[in-house]
Amino acid sequence: MRTTLQRWLGLVVATGALGWSACSRPASAPNQPGRLVLVHQPLWGNPAPFEALLEQFRRDNPEVELRTQLLPNDSDVSHQFFLTSLEGGSADFDVLVADVVWVPEFARAGWIADLSSEFPPTALAAEFLPAAADAVTLEGKTWAVPWYLDVGLLYYRTDLVPRAPRTWAELEAFARAARTRDPSLQGYLWQGRQYEGLVCNVYEAIWGFGGQSLAGDRLALDTPEAAAALTLLRRLISTGVSPPSVTSAAEEQTRLAFQNGRAIFMRNWPYALGEAQQEGSAIRGKVAISPLPTQHGEPGFGALGGWQLAINARTPAERRPAAIRLVRLLTSLEANRLFALEYGRNPPRRAAYLDPALIAGAPEIAQLLPLLERARPRPLTPYYGMLSDILQSEFSAAISGVRPPAQALQRAQAQADRLMGAPR
Amino acid sequence: MTERRQGLLFVAPAVAVLAGVALYPILGTIWLSLHRSILVFHEHRFVGFDNWATLFEDARFWSALVTTLYFSAVAVSAELALGLLFALLLHGVFRGRGLLRAAVLVPWAIPTVVSARLWGWLFNPDHGLVARMLPGDEVNWLGTPGYALHAAIVVDVWKTTPFVALILLAGLQAIPVELGRAAALDGAGPLRILWSITLPLLRPALAVAAVFRGLDAMRVFDAVYVLTGGGPANTTETLSIYAYKTLMRSGDFGYGSTIAVATFVCVSVLAAIYLWLVVPTQEPA
């Protein structure tokens, strides 16, 4: 009996010691001096052009060993990855991509380096599109450099409606008219699943009703404009202009339905245009894009999406020049053009849209300039990552009819205020 | 006196371990619930009962509590009813009984995450077996408020009924066979025996099963989280999921701890009620 007990005790002590030694190891092995690690999300398509760009960096910087590391193709999981490794003080990577809504959070947490001396905010504002420059500056400092952009657009079928609708009322009327001719058609598809895409869709509607994202330091949620926007989105579903399936749809479900010719209108990112115009697409040559509709008919504001390049705050000073050179190369005008032509990614630099090679090679991207100039970021606040969970659930409740829009907004406002530390 | 001291000495290690692994974390969480603590931004300050004041006005907390109570009540009732049925069937004498008793345990043996994934596919609106087999209009089970919570209940019942059945089977085997035989001699039918003899004698076993399952269901996390993530529109969000999301996803340790402590209080109250219901039945024995 005693021997068993002793054995058990021994085991417990041994396990504890193991656990302790595992914990007391340095959080991560430091990066080797000459090595530079770039963490980015998958680009899809042919890897060769991007590889060639990295090869150019290697040729110009022979003393640096450049390595790349891929993130999972899921923005939430990637965010979790950065949260754990950056909070843990990891120096395993030097240059990292950040979603447009992460930059203020990473900057406030002290995870990414201040780039103001190499990329002054004034220079960014002059060279890049306004929303893109806004999204990477916080309190007059630059924290990241825009890599490529995304913006929410309205897609419409040129063979089914006379022109792009300017107001929501027009969109509803056009959809009704087209559906009386062909009742099998769906009206307006958008992304209503409880996820980040829903937040983009709702903010676009709020801006279209004249609402703002922030009121001072608070989120502007419990406002008449936001209530009108959510009421409209709910009404689109309850009156059948949008099918009930939008409440569980993300980008790809809506794109597939639209591309198969089953719908009249769709809200989506620019990538869907390239797909729709491909050979074999049921709607090839019958689809066009426009700004999203608004309440009064002025061109709508699309939500800004996309990725920025930032530098890990833990990157030692001797590696910083190389990291800066890499960011400079990847966000240069040539890189902008390459990403547009080879990967269909929208350049953040204004000059790229006037580039003859880009206009000739990717006219569908060149035409996005006016839309991108009107793009707006979701609320720029360090707390965004924490807020999005609240926004997603309350917006989802409103559009699926679980509770009235005004009530959902009140609840969201109360939760957001508390989280952001607003006085009660 | 020395004997008493010796006794205390022997108990001390157990007390120390319990204090270390149970009491300390609970007190720590309660202390944390009095702070605003967002580690990412190095915010940590004492706020007194602010978090608790928020909690009482937090509609999301109350709906999570209602969801959890509803989930527990429906799931545990169904498990007890089905478990009793299975236990009575397995108690009978027939060929292959041992094999069947082992087979019934399979859902209980599968890790919860795996079974939740499995059921996630069964409920899939496009390819799922459930959607195919049920008549009537197609229902997106996991995407429709009202349906999703019941889908989660189905998964929980499927998974834990074997556990209840096993406890009740043990209870049944402790009942002397003679009682039933004597009642049959006196002319009692099978239903009458079940109602007047088996069930009253099974009451301690039923109570044990209800306590275990009830407390477990109040803390339900994995099955629901894997199945729906708390959606659609947070209609399947239980207390544990709300606490997890606040703690881990939002990084709000102060308020997350408040929710966790509130969950702990709810479970403790429930445990006290159960004990109060169970203990009197043991006194006469």
What can you tell me about this protein's structure?
- The complex is a heterodimer of chains A (424) and B (285).
- Chain A is α/β, with parallel strands linked by helices and 424 residues long.
- Helices cover 46% and strands 14% of the residues of chain A.
- Chain A is built from 18 helices and 13 strands.
- A five-stranded mixed sheet of chain A has the order 2-1-3-13-6, sandwiched between helices. In chain A, strands 8-11-7-12 form a four-stranded mixed sheet, sandwiched between helices.
- Chain B is mostly helical.
- Chain B has a single domain, classed as Orthogonal Bundle (MetI-like fold).
- Chain B has a two-stranded antiparallel ribbon with strand order 1-2.
- In chain B, helix 6 (112-122) packs parallel to helix 11 (222-228), helix 8 crosses helix 10 (190-218) and helix 8 runs antiparallel to helix 11.
- The radius of gyration of chain B is 23 Å and the shape is globular.
- The A-B interface holds A 83, 87, 105, 108-109, 193-194, 245, 247-248, 382, 385-386, 389, 393, 396-397, 400-402, 411, 414-415, 418-419, 421, 424 and B 36, 38-41, 43, 50, 53-54, 57-60, 140, 143, 145, 230-235, 237, 245, 249-252, 255.
Quaternary state, please? heterodimer
Strand adjacency order, main sheet of chain A: 2-1-3-13-6
Proportion in helices of chain B? over 70%
Structural class of chain A: alpha/beta
**Which stretches of chain B are low in confidence, meaning pLDDT under 50 for 5 or more residues running?**
none
CATH class group of the largest domain in chain A = Alpha Beta
**What's the count of strands of chain A?**
13
How many β-strand stretches of chain B? Answer: 2
- SSE order of chain B: HEEHHHHHHHHHHHH
CATH class of chain B: Mainly Alpha
CATH superfamily of the largest domain in chain A: Periplasmic binding protein-like II
Return the structural class of chain B. Answer: mainly alpha
CA-based shape of chain A: globular
Q: Helical region count of chain B?
A: 13
CATH superfamily membership of chain B, which one? MetI-like
Radius of gyration of chain A: 24 Å
Main sheet specs of chain B: 2 strands, antiparallel
The percentage helix of chain A is 40-55%
Q: Domains counted in the coordinates of chain B: how many?
A: 1
Total domain count of chain A: 2
What is the residue-mean pLDDT of chain B, rounded to a whole number?
89
